[in-house]
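Structure, all two chains, one model.
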Amino acid sequence: MIENKHKENCEKNCCGLCCTKIENIGVIYGRNTILRDVNIHIHCGELTALIGPNGAGKSTLLKALLGEIKHTGELKFLDAKGIHTGHPTIGYVPQSLNFDAGSPTSVLDLFMACRSSFPAWLYTPKKILKDVEESLERVKVAHLIKRRLGALSGGEMQRVLLALALDPVPDLLLLDEPVSGVDQNGMELFYKTVSDIREAYDLSIILVSHDFDIISRYADRVVLLNGTVLYSGSPSEVYKDESFSKTFGMRAGGA
Amino acid sequence: MEIWYKVVELVIPFDWAKADHMFFMKNALLAIILVSFIFGILSTMIVNNRMAFFSDALGHGAFTGVVIGGILGFVRPIWSAVVFSIIFSLGITLVKNKSKISRDTIIGVFSSVAIALGIFLSTLGGRSFTKLNAFLVGDILSIKPSEIGLLFLVLIAMIVLWSLLFNKLLVVSVNQSLASSRGLNTFWIEVIFTTAIAVIVTISMSWIGLLVINSLLILPAAAARNITSNVRQYHVVTILISMVSGVGGLILSYYIETATGATIVLILSIFFFITFALRGKTC
């Protein structure tokens, strides 16, 4: 099973070698340097929180990792044996879909369009239907399969997108402020699911978030970004670091 | 075509459907069925991708292409128009992707340039513009059997394209970054889709008319969206509305002696307002 790829590797070999390396990423828009020399090293099964002020280049970094914008540097995925396995499979959960709520697209349509080349407007083969149900069940939203995307609540939508990002199970999961605008309940549920999945599939996760409470509870590591990596360390340490109070000023104490 | 004439004779109760006369009407009927089917399919994703303004601009580009073709002395300016439209749509897509200027603005600029250039060139040397009116209003009754054959090929090409491209287009329409994360090349998908729109708009322009062609690309899907909740329903309803309006508009325009394109659009707009009123009754 692909799902257990990392697990098996970790059991047989040293897990420390299974990792995702972000090397020297730089992004330049016109004359503005948005990012320079970004180096992040993420072990499998680790949730790395990416923090930084607005305009620090957090979303830009994710877009560069997705290959959506031009960048220098490299994204490498290494399996447990340390053999370069090339570009990682990436799962991505966007901030919130900047998406037309009136669109007649159901959850099933979206999944079908993403994971199969069989035209979604024709009909749904049983096999695909079953696979989609399984994917949705992974994050406990199988009941939403027939629902129109525009009719989902914010929390439901993000869980559907999470299910989509996990199908196929990626090497690297990118979460871009995945629950901005979702109520407390939905947020807890979302992170609980992410946490479970991380353990089950031994994924590398990058989470962009402003929610320091969530970060201190779920993240293994925090990377403070502002144009480049200013600090990288455990959540409890980052708050004490000088770069943190400098970047966030007043908020450092009370957030 | 003989088979088609027989079918019309058997199925349609109107006077003009009787055997051995009024062939232009029967040709037009077949043409409108094909055109409305093709436009219905395209319509779904033009509306989903918020490209209403873009397809409008393409009509302008196609018009300019016809004028340029006329000046260069082509016998069938339609082919030069197809080439020009493709270049035009590629231009818009390229500039849009290479700059941070908003899509509206870029399309607005291209569209203005195209229409101004078209009028400028067509009136150069004091020539009269009136001979180009045919392209503005369109005349489906003038369609020839060979042109219907062309439409038929376009329809087949369209269905093949849709089978291959639709899923990818849908993902891109939902979210670009999501599409990139699934390894889709959003730029090329966009290029292929806009090229298809460019070709079809240009080919159909002389029959439908530049002034109303965009309505045929927007209204069917806009109406269908009001009452559908998944992609399959969306396609079925869009194509149905498109074809019913097309055929209804053609027959009605024959009896009340109006321009066919405009009559079709009016029927489409009635569909839109009816479905708008029904909106919210589906999930």
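Chain A has ten helices and nine strands.
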